[in-house]
Amino acid sequence: MARVAIVTGGTRGIGEAISLALKEAGMTVAANYAGNEEKAKAFTERTGIAAFRWDVSDYDACQQGVAEVEAALGPVDVVINNAGITRDGTILKMTAQMWDEVIRTNLGGCFNMAKAAFPGMRERKWGRIVNIGSINGQAGQYGQVNYAAAKSGIHGFTKALAQEGARFGVTVNAIAPGYIDTEMVAAVPADVLEKIVAKIPVGRLGQAHEIARAVAFLCAEDGGFITGSTLSINGGQHMY
Ligand code: NDP
């Protein structure tokens, strides 16, 4: 039986590339999304991968979403916590709502999804969880105390859950991407982006498939000894 994988935020950007890479690796993939129906529909038509809508920041919705995927495709063996948002602003301008939304989505989403899927993985003695962190969670970033805190939290979450899964064949790892050419980065003003690229030793933005191939690597059948690790993929921008 093919492994069943859920990729949160799996219908566009880095998540789309991850969904495709896991499909190519022979898995049955469910791509979750928040609400962009148009993108999700086009993604399913293009890839043949089923898309499921729920909000990862909503605990009950994650429980229901995982149950829905399991009813449709079978027990979930792999969860990629990729869904993420930005609500940037310096601390002077950041509202409590901007803080809450980012923490609840980017970090809370990892907890909510793990709560729904980890018990089954543990029981079946095989599982793979990969959490998408960020270079900005490692190095910090001006105007992103919410995002940097959430992503930094992901790295601690990963190491702690890895210890709980280790004896049960469940690995938990993180990837910390640098700047990747997606809609999230396209929203950065051109002059700011130019300065960012100038600081990347390889001299360009990363591509989504360059993150996806690492996710597929961590989720492989013979990946059982890699757990609690963070793989930095950032063109040499931050060596950590
Ligand atoms: P995009 O903005 O291109 O895509 C985000 C995806 O997440 C969409 O599928 C979106 O769904 C989904 N999503 C957002 N909020 C929720 C939610 N509450 N519930 C379910 N799904 C949600 O993001 P990227 O591909 O750029 O980023 C993917 C991940 O990689 C994020 O965690 C981001 O922080 C991280 N990252 C990105 C970097 C970059 O340079 N791009 C660098 C470092 C890390 P919908 O389409 O319905 O809106």
UniProtKB/TrEMBL annotation:
Query: Sorted alphabetically, which keywords does the UniProt record give?
Result: Oxidoreductase
Is this entry keyworded Oxidoreductase?
Answer: yes
InterPro entries under this entry?
A: Acetoacetyl-CoA_reductase, KR_dom, NAD(P)-bd_dom_sf, Sc_DH/Rdtase_CS, SDR, SDR_fam
Give the residues annotated as coiled coil. Answer: none
Q: Which residues form the Ketoreductase domain?
A: 3-178
- Name of the gene this protein is made from: phbB
The name this protein carries in UniProt is Acetoacetyl-CoA reductase
What are the GO cellular component annotations?
cytoplasm
Instruction: Give the source's domain of life in one word.
Output: Bacteria
What Enzyme Commission number does this protein have?
A: 1.1.1.36
Q: What family, per the record? A: Belongs to the short-chain dehydrogenases/reductases (SDR) family.
